[in-house]
Specification:
The protein has 359 residues and is α/β, with parallel strands linked by helices. It contains 13 helices and twelve strands. The chain folds into two domains: 163 residues, Rossmann fold; 141 residues, HUPs (Rossmann fold, 3-Layer(aba) Sandwich), CATH 3.40.50. The radius of gyration is 22 Å and the shape is elongated.
């Protein structure tokens, strides 16, 4: 018998104030040069400590079924693939809620309790059939039905309690192309999720042959939060499931888009200016890629708009998965510039793995 959960509510966090100079990098919108640590050795020490804390492999995957109907074929294909290749655990979670029934539960109305139990039992039967259809000896699969809102908070709490290493959400690809619904939901879920969030978009999914990690080592957030290491760690985990090819992608601003003196040191030993912008970014990207044994042939640098170039490169490189971070930004920045991750998630044809800020 599946357990009941309480109703989760979330209060929006206060808006953040951010000072910046305008440099369009992979994260999109405004950016600013990071504060420098005193020495290269100190930077390396902090980086090594971050990597040591990363998850070594994916053991627990939570499949989040969106309210309002059965899971899409895309999600089921992903679950089947994970069940075949993952020597771990999968939990399929469905979230239910009805405002009328919820009001009756507060008033301890017997009919409301009966209606709630009926909804849950019906959904449990649906999930049990799915579990039976994809069961494999290699992977432990179970299901759970949860009652509560907002949906993303219920899923996030379930992931924390169950210690999930990955959350998978999805919707038919036609719906994703029509609006930003699933992309926006994925971003909001990943922003405070205890683990990365995978948006399943490929309709006839058979696995990942090519994985691309979009990084931005000169972004102001990366130096203090280790964003790129978390992105590459997640990409390495996914690529390791089926021995997929892993590449690194970085989009940097066009030199003519700004003027900046090259005397500014943006990383230990790395100087930044309009005349050497490509070299500065390549040096920073190579330093990160080297930590994950990614050779120069799989490092791709392009200048231009982050969203346009990332989406274009995933097509050119025939990527099955793009991995990128979700950066916390202020309300004004988000409203004016939008979110690179949200737009990439909406416009790309491949799956998208979102890596949120460090908890």
């Amino acid at each position: 018998m599946h357990e009941m959960v309480e109703i989760f509510c979330r209060q929006n966090p206060p808006f953040q104030k951010t000072s910046h100079i305008r440099i369009n990098a992979n994260s999109g919108g405004p950016s600013t040069l990071p504060n420098m640590l005193d020495t290269r050795s100190e930077y390396q020490r902090i980086t090594e400590r971050r990597i040591e804390k990363m998850v070594d492999e994916i053991n627990r995957v939570l499949i989040a079924i969106q309210p309002g109907g059965p899971p899409s074929k895309s999600v089921l294909d992903h679950v089947s693939w994970l069940a075949t290749h993952l020597n771990g655990e999968i939990r399929i979670v469905s979230c239910l809620y009805d405002t009328v029934i919820a009001a009756g539960l507060v008033n301890e109305d017997r009919n409301s309790f009966a209606a709630q139990a009926g909804m849950i039992n019906t959904q449990e039967g649906t999930l049990d059939e799915i579990v039976k259809s994809i069961a494999t000896p290699e992977c432990s699969i179970d299901s759970a039905v949860r009652w509560g809102i907002p949906y993303r908070d219920v899923i996030r709490e379930e992931a924390r309690k169950w210690a999930a290493d990955l959350i998978v959400v999805g919707s038919p690809q036609a719906r994703i192309r029509a609006n930003l619904g699933i992309a926006g939901f994925g971003i909001r879920l990943a922003s405070q999720s205890p683990c990365p969030v995978l948006i399943a978009k490929i309709s006839s999914f058979t696995g990942y042959r090519s994985v691309i990690a979009a990084i931005d080592p000169l972004h102001r957030h990366n130096e203090l939060t280790g964003t790129d290491d978390r992105v590459l760690n997640a990409a390495t985990q996914i690529a390791g499931i089926q021995d997929s090819s892993l590449s690194v992608l970085h989009v940097y601003p066009n030199p003519e888009s700004f003027e900046l003196a090259s005397s500014v040191e943006v990383r230990p030993g790395v100087y930044y200016g309009a005349e050497n912008i490509e070299a500065a970014h390549r040096s920073a990207v190579t330093e990160v890629a080297d930590r994950y044994d990614i050779d120069s042939e799989r490092i791709h640098l392009v200048a231009g708009d982050p969203v346009e170039e990332i989406v274009d490169q995933t097509r050119k490189l025939r990527a099955d998965l793009i991995v990128l971070s979700t950066i916390k930004r202020g309300f004004i920045e988000e409203t004016v510039y939008g979110s690179t991750a949200t737009r990439v998630a909406a416009e790309s044809e491949c799956d998208v793995l979102l890596v949120g800020p460090a908890n």
